[in-house]
Amino acid sequence: MNKTDFYKVLGVDKSATTDEIKTAYRKLAMKYHPDRNPDNKAAEDKFKEATEAYEVLGDTQKRSQYDQFGHAGMHNGMGGGGGHSSHMNMEDIFENFGDIFGSMFGGGNTKSRRKKGPQPQAGLSVTKEIEITLKEAFLGTKKEIAYHHFFACDGCSGTGARPGTSAQSCTTCNGSGEMHFKQGFFMYAQACTSCSGKGFIIPAPCSTCNGQSRVQRYDKFTVNIPRGIYNNAELRVNEKADAGLYGGATGDLFLQVRVKEDKTFKRDNDDLICYVMLTYAQLTLGCQVDIESIDETKHTIKIPKGCPVGEKIIITGEGFHKLRGKTRGNLIIITQCFIPQKISAEAKKKLQEYSDIVGTQTNDGEGFITSFFKKFLG
Q: Do the beta carbons of residue 267 and residue 228 sit within 8 Å?
């Protein structure tokens, strides 16, 4: 008896993708599923025929053999999936294609989901925020971190069971964690009431952790903050968050670094910026001044004659250390002019005399408007 072409059985073209083949099979399986067609031999045969076609076309290697040799290729040891639809066992079908039936009918391959005991689960990672000063970011610092989180239980070494005992697979759900019920031609599942959906029970729970495999404790430790750290940087501290369940990996602690603004210094990339306040005479005549950087180191800088306000004086290599690499940014000092709001009568007289000597005419410069002097005020 000639067998129907597998592509025709599923109702797809030979160019169909794997996803299209799977979708077509799901539709047929839904239509001819035994739960929807009780005591219907014809529907059962259709169901088996569609399953046989999907078993071949849903497998890349088997499909290639079928495309080349047809059904004959499936009989000659090249596939193992063809030519036996009438002998297919329904339990084997549900076992092999449980991922498909599980999503449609709430059942499926319970054996593949069976748990022999507690499965290790990784612990959660934790994110915390720390605040440091700009000086601490410049120099690097150490910060103490303290908070409650989970540790693996010492009493049971993270197994959840008393020493000398172990967890057991739940006999009610056979380790699946689910109970299956049939209503009409549909099946539905709910968490097993005996094991609360875990798939296992612990007959003799550890007295320290009550079978949870971990306990919560207060932890205090020191974290090194590298010099050059920038605002909003994230530091990862390995295995300093919650311990996993039943021997699972411990999560990591992520620290979000917030750098407070400084009243005197600012940061621009890896450059350290500050302002130096000078008198008009110092800017005009030039001078040498000592300044103190954020790390309290002293630097002597030279102010050239006729120095304008806003002039940048750069000290190379005295800025922030780069996080990656051995180089540093620069220390940039920006000049400002101190204008006193009140002066003595003698100082005022001298300033007017100076004005008479140098005059009040300014040289027009690009980007400035022209002004005309009338008189001094006050």
A: no
